[in-house]
Amino acid sequence: MKLDDTDLCLLAELQRDAAAPLATLAVRCRVSAPTVLRRIRRLEQAGLIEHRVAILHPQRLAAAVGEGLQAIVELTLERQGAEFLQAFEALAVADPAVQQCYRVSAGPDFVLVVAVRTMAEYQALAQRLFTAHDNVRTVKAYFCVHRAKFDTRLPLPSTAAAAGESGATAGQR
């Protein structure tokens, strides 16, 4: 799929605020609201827009509900053949406490980002994902005490429309 300046502008704006009204997106990307809707649907159908969600702040949520724990976990397997890597990956991504799962190289085999409500829930997660499986060799968990930055936006090519510098009006697209 080829992306033009309007597509890139919409992707950039939706990464900033997926709840922005169509009219606002139309002004920012200098197209009409029906064009915005049509383009967003096309981007979703193409799989470029995977989800549109609300992102909760973990520390503020923990303060509001009285608990919350996030950890970054490095994990190395004993046997690293493709079937063993795929088996652990399938297990990890199926667990609701695992928010992100990365297969990495030049270090551990996997890096997981996990979120649970309590230390007891983390221990249950560790039991079902790490301790109960004989192929897990090492686990290092780093518990988050402060989040200085969190951003879900992916870098996009810079374009005139995405930067809001295009001279085109909504009627010209």
Automatic annotation (TrEMBL):
Coiled coil: none annotated. It comes from the Bacteria. The keyword Transcription applies. Keywords: DNA-binding, Transcription, Transcription regulation. Residues 3-70 form the HTH asnC-type domain. One of its GO terms (molecular function) is sequence-specific DNA binding. One of its GO terms (cellular component) is cytosol. GO terms for biological process: response to amino acid. This is DNA-binding transcriptional activator DecR.
